[in-house]
Amino acid sequence: MISTAETSALQTSVGRKHTRPRVGVFNVGFHRYWPQFPGLREELDGYRVEFEDRLREMDVEIISAGLVDTVDSGRKAGDHFASQNVDIIFCFVTTYVQSAFIVPVAQRGKAHMVLVGLQPTAGMDVTKVTTRMQLAHDNCTSLPEIMYAMRRCGLRADTVFGMLHGDERSAALVREWIYAAKAVHALKNTRIGLLGHPFEGMLDMNVDPTSFTVAFGAHIDMIEMGDLAKRVDNATEEEIAAMTERINNFFTFPEPGADSSIAGKVTPESMRNSARVAVGLEKLVADYNLDGLSHYYRGLPDNNDEFLIANIIVGASLLTAKGIPVAGEGDLKNCTAMLIMDRLDAGGSFCELHPADFTEDFVFVGHDGPGHIGISNEQPALRGLSMYHGKFGSGVSVEFKVKNGPITIAGITVREDGKFAMIAAEGESLPGGIPQTGNTNTRAKFKPDMPTFIENWTDAGVTHHFALGIGRQIGILQKIGRIVNMEVQVVAQ
Q1: Tens of pLDDT along 408-467?
Q2: Residue ranges of domains in the chain
Q3: 11, 86, 112, 460: which could join 483 in a potential S-S bond, CB 3.0 to 4.6 Å?
Q4: Is CATH 3.40.50.10940 the classification given to domain 22-187?
Q5: Can you name the residues that pair with 488 across neighbouring β-strands?
Q6: Interval 202-218: pLDDT, tens
């Protein structure tokens, strides 16, 4: 989670859009019960209202369809959810219900459904149980019937079962589904810009932009280098000075390390260049209403396009920490993975595998260029690079490592059938130094051991880029996969 201090230090006119996912909720029952057991319907409705109030605390918009207890009420609920474009539907199973009432909600609602059965008490005193009391505790009775009917109809659903009160396990699962819905909501409303093209020769970078619309509902906006150039050229001295102050306040400027011939001090000229491009970059993002950006330039050296990309790293890092992921080398897939990780409040830094350490059993993960500087517990550093290895130009680059503790890495790949898949692993960020080369780097340890992990990660068919986030996020990533019908393969957990 990005701290308040970090957020205020990065405050600008652009940043992550605050949009709340729409969560559909309804509870269920059997219409024949109501005349038989007066007050039962009202009791069950009360449990639903309590559940909805809990969800509202997670900053979501609740779209309630009330009680479904007939086929017709199920159809009306499904139509209501569809008209409100909900991102997920919670079927709150408050008593036994016939599966025929639930299927039309899923068929018409057009959103992933989670069956939630939360028993009102931990158990019943069998010496005092009445039929009415048993019906109010029948929260799991129809779960198998509903799931069977859903699968017969070619529909997907998932289940959470537990207690309404004092049950952290089921509460945590519901929270994961809410975070998954937030990420999916962001995906289907996102605009990612492609500035330039994927790095030539990297076959895992190539991807059809339309496929993001097909899979997630996202829109890929083609951005010309001239779009950025115009805004950089129009940056005023006041804007450049303000950006320079932001950079000076947020970053450190260390003395050169072992690679001093390449990674040296930041010169006043290179600082001004980075600040000027950062001003133009933020204007570009605001003008095109972008939620993310991927960039790369290959062309001839010593021209304005090269200048723009060579000086984009600082501005890109500031944007990434504000919730607008910027991915290098034209990698749209990893920009999407970074956006997902960011919407989980986990960060999402642009990474690949770096050299390994067989003595301490870890592998460095990082990249040259921008990183998510909001998930470091140390002040990130800037170094002036006389060259970018394998690329053209020179400029200022970011050096930082992710805070120690649990981490999750996730990369989006394309399978042989053309469908997206996510490869994910959980590990640990270890304490210790990193190379002083002006790159992002984190000492990452994964199970069962470093060499086996790298073999398993490679064999999974992931691309060589991935998003690095803090915390253990695989449970939520798997739920995102369920909602958007994307394979999620777990390599280490």
Answers
A1: 999 999 999 999 999 999 999 999 988 777 678 899 999 999 999 999 999 999 999 999
A2: 22-187, 190-492
A3: 112
A4: yes
A5: 422
A6: 988 899 999 999 999 99
- Nearest residue to 178 via CA among 343, 408, 349: 343
Collapsing DSSP to helix, strand or coil, 400 comes out as coil
Secondary structure (3-state) at 90: strand
Residue 399: what pLDDT?
Answer: 80
Distant-in-sequence contacts of 4-8, Cβ < 8 A, 24+ apart: 6/321, 6/373, 6/374, 7/322, 7/374
In angstroms, the CA 190 to CA 324 distance is 10
The pTM assigned to this predicted structure is 0.92
DSSP-assigned beta bridge partners for residue 296: 196
Q: Which of 268, 267, 298 is nearest to 390 (CA)?
A: 298
> Contact 381/314 with Cβ under 8 angstroms?
no
The encoded tokens of residue 174 equal 């519901």
The CATH class given to the 190-492 domain equals alpha beta
List of the chain residues with pLDDT < 70: 1-13, 259-261, 369, 386-394, 438
Closest CA to 28 of 120, 138, 175: 138
